């Protein structure tokens, strides 16, 4: 953000953010590949700004206005979110839509292995993840004004159609594993079971802020992909990440001794979540995990295409992530039992 952009943002905040006062400075967070995010330091305190990226964007992608709406609706529910302050739909201010929210202090945990944590701390954080996820899926969407936040109908059929379209629009070459996975998902769609809840869309440990000296969650972040849909999409997303290799790229738990680390198995986490919601453990959970791998593969393909088109927030990292697309297709097939 250059000085002229910062001046326009400051002038806009003076008119739209109650209690704001300058001077204003900005530092870009070096995380995320989707919506560029900045910490704003001002005389009145710290804020966070998230904006759409520049360039040609896929329809419905980078929906910062949806992020703003859902966080405003969840404020003062059991779901911890930052307080949003103002949404700017005037592209002349920063060249793209953006919103400003309060800065929430806390620690961000990059990987589910939680290097340096004690087994007891890891157990507590895993339990908190299950509790917060159940809270998201227990929100009364009618009461908070989100009853129209997603279209009605078969969530997984709708999502498969959407992400197939997104994936095809972002293709930069043929990935046979993703094509095979797409075929399997289309042939193994589960029957509707009547569950329709708020869905985060990218629920994982690095999209959460935790207490500095505890295991409580202070905020769930990055609601860009949220909608109304099937809650197992979020649950399977957690399991998907845990099945990836450990380390800064995979950020998973594959091959680690979870018992020694104090972390639950996939099945134990599913049981913890279901106990929080008071529901039975789902059957044929492999479909949901397989779909989670396909959707993440499609997202990473979009990240790769933005890098090749010159529109990525962090081009070098975007290309590294894009290289994982075939692996996500393979792991989705493994979850489906097709490899």
Note down, in words, how this protein is organized:
The chain folds into 2 domains: 3-102, Phosphorylase Kinase, domain 1, CATH 3.30.200.20; 107-336, Aminoglycoside 3'-phosphotransferase, Chain: A, domain 2 (Alpha-Beta Complex), CATH 3.90.1200.10. Helix content is 43%, strand content 12%. It has helices spanning 3-16, 64-74, 91-94, 119-137, 155-170, 176-187, 232-242, 258-261, 266-277, 286-309, 315-322, 325-336, and strands at 25-28, 37-42, 45-51, 84-88, 98-102, 107-108, 197-199, 208-210, 217-220, 227-229. Strands 1-2-3-5-4 form a 5-stranded antiparallel β-sheet, sandwiched between helices. A 3-stranded antiparallel β-sheet has the order 6-8-9, covered by helices on one side.
Overall mean pLDDT stands at 92
Low-confidence stretches: none
Portion in strands:
5-15%
Distance between the termini: 47 Å
Overall strand count: 10
The main β sheet shows up as: 5 strands, antiparallel
Instruction: Tell me the series of helices and strands, N- to C-terminal.
Output: HEEEHEHEEHHHEEEEHHHHHH
Q: Evaluate the radius of gyration.
A: 20 Å
Share of helical residues: 40-55%
| Second CATH tier, the architecture of the largest domain | Alpha-Beta Complex
The number of helical segments is 12
SS class? alpha+beta
Biggest sheet: strand arrangement: 1-2-3-5-4
Number of domains: 2
Identify the overall geometry.
globular
**CATH fold node name of the largest domain:** Aminoglycoside 3'-phosphotransferase, Chain: A, domain 2
CATH superfamily of the largest domain: Aminoglycoside phosphotransferase (APH), C-terminal lobe
């Amino acid at each position: 953000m250059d000085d002229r952009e910062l001046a326009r943002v400051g002038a806009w905040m003076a008119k739209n953010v109650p209690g704001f006062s300058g001077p204003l400075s900005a530092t870009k967070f070096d995380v995320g590949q989707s919506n560029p995010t900045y910490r704003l330091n001002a005389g009145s305190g710290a804020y966070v700004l998230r904006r759409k990226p520049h360039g040609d964007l896929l329809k419905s992608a980078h929906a910062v206005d949806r992020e703003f709406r859902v966080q405003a609706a969840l404020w003062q529910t059991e779901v911890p979110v930052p307080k949003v302050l103002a949404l700017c739909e005037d592209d002349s201010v920063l060249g793209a839509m953006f919103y400003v929210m309060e800065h929430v202090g806390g620690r961000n945990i990059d990987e589910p292995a939680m290097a340096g944590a004690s087994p007891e701390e890891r157990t507590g954080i895993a339990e908190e993840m299950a509790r917060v996820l159940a809270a998201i899926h227990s929100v009364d969407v009618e009461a908070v004004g989100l009853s129209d936040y997603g279209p009605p109908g078969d969530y997984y059929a709708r999502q498969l159609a959407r992400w197939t379209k997104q994936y095809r629009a972002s293709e930069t070459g043929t990935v046979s594993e993703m094509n095979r996975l797409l075929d399997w998902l289309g042939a193994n769609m589960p029957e509707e079971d009547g569950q329709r809840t708020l869905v985060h869309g990218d629920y994982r440990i690095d999209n959460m802020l935790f207490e500095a000296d505890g295991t409580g969650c202070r905020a769930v972040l990055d609601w860009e992909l949220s909608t109304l849909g099937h809650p197992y999409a979020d649950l399977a997303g957690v399991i998907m990440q845990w099945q990836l290799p450990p380390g800064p790229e995979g950020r998973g738990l594959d091959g680690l001794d979870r018992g020694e680390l104090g972390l639950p198995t996939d099945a134990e986490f599913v049981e913890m979540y279901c106990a929080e919601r008071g529901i039975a453990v789902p059957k044929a959970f492999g479909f949901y995990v397989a779909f989670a791998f396909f959707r993440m593969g499609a997202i990473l393909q979009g990240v790769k295409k933005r890098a090749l088109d010159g529109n990525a927030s962090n081009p070098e990292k975007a290309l590294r992530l894009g290289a994982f697309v075939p692996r996500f297709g393979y792991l989705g097939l493994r979850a489906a039992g097709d490899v």
